[in-house]
């Protein structure tokens, strides 16, 4: 390879000449295209909210905020409430995020910090990326025929020995929160792992070298230098993974049990907003459609609030890491 500097390979003055009329035109065209794309996304979101809101308006006018605090879902009596579904959505998503966050970050560390040979790391990375391509319904079937039979003996033992704890207070008779959480964690894992890998790989290598130069061990460099430096990207991975978990539908509809109840037990059936929409909408009448659209608005609101809170916490975390007040 030639040692000739890069600037010598360019025409004289190419790096210092003022922008041409074509450069200005290309820049304006790109800016205009970006603005049009951003405006189109905003208009699309507004259109979706408007269409859902129009159909949900009768239910909003009839049930008001009691819709969020009631537990009954009785079409014949026009009684609708989604408190168990809100609980199931948040509970299952937080549990799945805890499991997937731990394993996703662990895998990202092992794939980026030279714990594995390069070829083996590429193989593991490919396998994890392939998990994101598996259809949700396949995960659901795998959960029914593999996960539930596998964890049932453990669930029975925990219920028999530690049944006095609310988390193990019921038996696992079939679909329930625990198998749904396990499958949901596996579905969220590729998102958290991929973004965490990018965050760790974006750290300049000299940062790690500086930590080693100060006498840090490999794990000290990872835990005290690399992870705090990549905290912003890792936190973004967790927020995106949580958003994916909140909106997951088919696998949860097949595994969580679709039971309209609130329980801390990991083995009891439950329900989520997404699975409620998936299971009730195909046969819903006009009255129930309005209630389901109201539930869809609530799910959108929860997702929006989670993303806003995640961005605020991310900004706060980055300020603390950088030492700014």
From TrEMBL:
Domain of life: Bacteria
Keyword Ribosomal protein (UniProt): no
PROSITE patterns: ABC_TM1 (PS50928)
Annotated TM spans: 32-50, 90-111, 123-148, 177-200, 221-242, 291-316
Keywords attached to this entry: Cell inner membrane, Cell membrane, Membrane, Phosphate transport, Transmembrane, Transmembrane helix, Transport
Annotated membrane topology: Multi-pass membrane protein
InterPro entries: MetI-like, MetI-like_sf, Phosphate_PstC, Phosphate_Transport_Permease
Keyword hit for Ion transport: no
Domain called ABC transmembrane type-1: residue spans: 86-310
Entry's localization field: Cell inner membrane; Cell membrane
Family indicated by similarity: Belongs to the binding-protein-dependent transport system permease family. CysTW subfamily.
Function: Part of the binding-protein-dependent transport system for phosphate; probably responsible for the translocation of the substrate across the membrane.
Protein name: Phosphate transport system permease protein
Gene (name only): pstC
